[in-house]
Amino acid sequence: MSDEKISENKKKAAGSPLAALGEFRSLLPYLSRYRTRYILGFLCLITVDAAQIIIPQFIRQAVDLVSSAGSAGSFERRSILFLGLEMIAVMAVISGGRFLWRYFIHGSSRRIETEMREHLFDHLLTLSYDYYQKNKIGDLMARSINDLNAVRMSIGMGLVAMVDFIVMATSILVIIFIQDARSALFAVIPLPLVTLLILIFGRTVGKMFLRSQETYSAMSDTVQETFAGIRVVKSFVNEWWFIKKFADTNDDYRDANMALTKLFGLFFPLVSFLSGLTVLILLLVGGIRVVEGYMSPGGLVALFRYLQMLIWPLMGAGFTVNMIQRGAVSLKRINEVLETVPSIMSPANPKQPPFLSIPRSDAAPAEMAVEIRALSFAYDGGGGGLSGIDLSVKRGTMLGIMGRTGSGKSTLIKTLTRTIDPPALTVKVFGLDVREWDLRELRGLFGVTPQDSYLFSDSIKQNIGYGIGEPAEELLKKAADLAALEKDLENFKAGWETLIGERGLTLSGGQKQRVAISRSLILDPEILILDDALSAVDAETEKRILTGLLRERQGKTTIVISHRVSTLRNADAIAVLDKGMISEYGSPRELAAIPGGFYARMAALQHLDEASTDETSTDEASTDGGTING
Known about the structure:
630 residues, alpha/beta, four-stranded antiparallel β-sheet, disordered C terminus
């Protein structure tokens, strides 16, 4: 998040509690769906509050009965017994009502939290590739967990505290003024100070909570980054650096929360102190009123009880402000994600190319699977862009792409699937501009095995069948055989059900690549893209995979990116990229004949490497033979 955005959030968080309520407009659809539950919950809550307010009246009557009995010399036990039974009935209503309002209100807030989390997750999946380049995963996780918890508290306990404050504080103030206005007038003198404290508290807590959430996001980023790159961390023996980095972010999070804790530690004792002053004032003023005969002893005891009950609504007002401010800050952070529009979307009226509805026969003319005309593209940060690319790939052919690191190879294939958005009319797939395709249909044509071979923490079977749900066993076996995985599966004790760990940590580099290739092959896609997907396999395995691909994918298009000449020797054409432009194009034989060309130089270097390897192997074999024979 940018500094300007953070500054803007802090200004909004610093506003009054009423201004913060505006952030909750996005919750209205959820609250509307659960309005019946909330209404029932509030009715139960108000019933509980009303029942609690009645209790001091029973106490007043009981004290007055006892005091009058003492002066008259008689005591009506039956009246006290009836009062006790009435109190038991009221307390039963309180217990039942308290269970019901928790069931309806807290239950609804939990359901809303669940729906919001699902909505947020669904929306995150619609966002484009560039969004995840600009936003850290740890921060998104913090918004999905910690911020949603704060929103749930604001529409759960926050609303309860607000209703309690409105109903109980208003009712209690009305009752004590009706019962003895003079005593009540003196007793409530400290209450304006409580109101002032609540306003100051509300303005401060929003800014402090925003700081707390930001430091939590930073800590989540550190944890996610550390464990995602644990292999690198351990290989460099650099654990101490990440321990220090985590300790620093953890200390920042502690300091931010300690600041909030200190604020609460100051606010609530002050409220309790001021509430205690009301009791002291009532003891002085009310005691005089009882002695002078203007108020009964029972009335004074009831007033004491009401003032003690008034402490919770006043504390609840602080809770309300706290939770509303926290919820508003967190909801703002969540809405920032939900209001983000994907940079790449399907058009309003997507088109469909004719070939999808017309079966292709060998007698039909070869369509152009991919046509690229004057394609130029630049990333915001520069590097890896494209400039003036012109390229055609006939359906059923194999295109090889070669070039130095950063020459734009991966960028080129990302434009085909609209992982990044090319300019209009520059990239066509089967005669239709990629920007006119429905995204789901366009990407459904492709089977892409990217460079990083990302695997999920699941079984080999689920990773290979990821794109089609529950594949038949023969499809799984065929895809695994084409990727030369059958031998590896025999060595795994659990076979297809072998768990491979997060990001494929339990597999070798070559095994990861072959599982990823199988995942693409099982789709039998119209266009298969292998982005340097054979770099970690040996030459013999590579040859097996390529031979199988050539045999099984006749009539379908294959695009292979590789640095190896051996990988591309069977391509119908090869495009060599240099600084985002095509520097060489032709068949492998044609490119090999270009003096000083990139492909020719790579072929010569790799041929020398292979020859050197063969000679070394021969020497080692001779030496071993001499040793054995000797």
